[in-house]
Specification:
Largest sheet: 5 strands, parallel
Mean pLDDT: 93
Strand content: 5-15%
Distance between the termini: 14 Å
CATH class of the largest domain: Alpha Beta
Number of domains: 2
Shape: globular
Low-confidence stretches: 84-90
Oligomer: single chain
Radius of gyration: 19 Å
Strand order of the largest sheet: 5-4-6-7-8
């Protein structure tokens, strides 16, 4: 059995998906994996995205605010791209430039690096970088906005109601699906300066209102766990 939300990860899909009897995937990805599957394999679709599984029961504690000395809606989370992934063949999207532009507009920036060199670059320029583990959902929940070079954290934040932007070079079907459902998620292909302007113009009261709406929408989505259990029971039988 496989659980997959990355049809763009061609090498990994070619290697692993022909071996599975069951594939669990978001309804946003219907038909996207067919070319990888062996004859007889079954696909179980669900109405939601993977992130619903751990976002739905989330309860904010404010731990990230206390640990990093932050104020609610007073900072922006920036996550660089996963440039060492097998599927990532593009140039960096300029996350450091965005951090600088946000700082020029009076916004505090928290960087969540993927690699040590990203950490070093952020710290060298004086941006906040957690030294140990941090509750990423709590950090995203209280942020004014989240910007990431990937997709997962943007979807998490959007499901929590935080305005979220992803700069991945491809349109991600699951992210477009979340946006179509009315969550505050957008793919950004413009300049760092323009994005910083948009984020700086966000009104905190409106962000709070959208967050409340997102919680209501989230309750109507499905997580993949029920389909995973269905597949496992079928395999047992």
């Amino acid at each position: 059995m496989a659980l997959n939300d990355t049809p763009h990860a061609d090498a990994a899909n070619r290697l692993s998906l022909p071996l599975c009897s069951f594939l669990v995937a978001s309804e946003a990805l219907e038909g996207k994996f067919d070319r990888y599957l062996a004859p007889g394999a079954k696909v179980l679709y669900y109405k939601g995205v993977d992130e619903v599984l751990w976002v739905r029961g989330f309860e904010p504690t404010g731990s990230s605010l206390r640990e990093l000395g932050l104020e609610r809606r007073g900072y922006v989370v920036v996550r660089p791209e996963e440039c060492k992934a097998a599927y990532y063949s593009w140039e960096a999207w300029g996350w450091l430039e965005l951090c600088e532009e946000l700082r020029r507009r009076g916004l505090r920036v928290v960087v969540l690096p993927r690699y040590e060199e990203q950490r070093a670059a952020a710290e060298r320029l004086g941006f906040a970088v957690p030294r140990g583990c941090v509750d990423g959902l709590d950090l995203a929940y209280h942020a004014l906005a989240v910007v990431t070079g990937g997709g997962t954290m943007a979807r998490e934040a959007a499901l929590l109601g935080t305005p979220s932007y992803y700069t991945f070079p491809l349109e991600l079907e699951v992210s477009k699906y979340v946006e179509r459902l009315g969550f505050p998620l957008k793919r950004w292909s413009g300049s760092a300066s323009e994005l910083a302007d948009e984020i700086a113009s966000l009104e905190r009261a409106e962000v709070e209102e959208r967050a409340e709406e997102a919680r209501e929408k989230l309750a109507g989505l499905e997580a993949p766990d029920a389909k995973v259990l269905e597949a496992l029971r079928a395999l047992e039988g």
